[in-house]
Amino acid sequence: MTRIQSIGSPAWEARWRAFVEEETIGPHYEPYSVVVQDISQSQSRTSESLQDITTLQRRLAEPMPENSLRVIYLHQSYGWGKLNVSEEMLREIVVANAMSLEVLDTLSLFRPRVQELEEAFCGSSWNRRNGSVQEFAYTFKYPEQKIHPDIGVMWSIRQTGIYHRYDAQSGKNVVLYLSSSPTSPALARGRAYFDELAGDEITISDVQDVQSASVTTALLDNDLKFGHTTLVQLRHIENQILPLGPIFQSALKTLQDMREKTSMNLSAVLAQDNENLQGLVLALNKNLNFLLQRLSGTSVLASETLNLKLQSLAKMTSDNGLSLTKAAIKDSQTIRIITVMTLLYLPSSFVASLFGMNFFSFNAADKLLLGYVAIKISAREAGRSLERSFKLLRDRDWRLPAVVAKAGSKLKTSWSTKFKHATHGVEVQVNGANSERVDLEKGLHSQS
């Protein structure tokens, strides 16, 4: 029983449904995009971008000549997004090319990401042989520089997946090329590489696409202003380079597997390149370990420096508190002395001030203590009060004819009962009927 006949079986369908539930594929951004490129020895190349299941079925149904190569390009909508292909289209690609179920493990590595920690997750290479058909798949991860309009230059972890199915009997090759971004430079390099394969005999040992890895680090030699912000920045740098450890280990394992599986057909040049790449990965891994050790030491140094700074600050605060306490004790002693002195001298000072303000007068002859209160009233206010009194009497139909000796003189009244002061006589006429002259000096009354 061949692999094609097993497609559609209950076990195959169960594995496919589990893969679909991982939400590795759409629906996401439409239109979907699948690029199919055919390369043969006759130097003919045909490339087509397919966006629906009907055109994809038509293209995949076209027969492939012997010793030819068919490359199918799939990519994610963006670095952390889903594969930009529908479930029906991906199922048609797997079924039409009789791919093994293990290809789903490679496809699941391109599922959506939710946090930076997932960038360190790497898959393992695998191979399967079924008669004259041999399948081989692997993935590579690498840092890629991009420019953000708000942040500027930044780095992102990208990955590229390769699935290769080779039929030694017919010489037909099917390559599934997976990219994490439609604008990734690795995608352009991969297409250029496959274009160069036209006209040559294609075997499984030829289809290799190894991405160069480069690591950028922040220089920690500058003077640091230690604080909580410094520790946060160091942790951020550590989180950025930690995923590279598993990535390098996975890349080294993939290179070793590729050399072992293709040792029979691998040319001397490719074998040497494979060995050089392994040495490069080992060197990068050593550099990574050195950077992690240095970063860890710097973080410990920053943490200890921050602790010393906080201890010094706590000591200064304690010394200042002690000085303030001593000053407060001295101030309390001074205030206590001032309070006692105030209690002693305040009563006598109050009595002396009270009698010194001339509120009281003492008659030594009669031994009498006389007091008076003086209230200042302005002439303007006195005139207004007198005017209001006259208006009140006028409104009540009272008439008060006053006989004044001289015109324009002011009316003056004086009362004296105790000290017998002389007063002027006042003539009053009430209701215009009777007139009475009162002489306060003689005590006489006369009627007219």
- Largest sheet geometry: 7 strands, mixed
| Dominant shape | elongated
CATH architecture of the largest domain: 2-Layer Sandwich
Q: Quick one: CATH class of the largest domain?
A: Alpha Beta
Q: Gap between N and C termini, in Å?
A: 160 Å
Cα Rg: 55 Å
Strand content: 15-25%
Q: What is the domain total for the residues?
A: 3
CATH homologous superfamily name of the largest domain? CorA soluble domain-like
What's the rounded overall pLDDT mean?
Answer: 70
Helix fraction by DSSP (H/I, runs of at least 4): 40-55%
Helix and strand succession?
A: HHEEHEHHEEEEHHHHEEHEEE
List the strand order in the largest sheet: 2-1-3-7-6-5-4
* Poorly predicted residue ranges: 1-5, 198-224, 398-448
Supply the number of helical segments.
10
> How many individual β-strands?
12
Q: Which class best fits the helix and strand makeup?
A: alpha+beta
What is CATH's topology name of the largest domain?
Beta Polymerase, domain 2
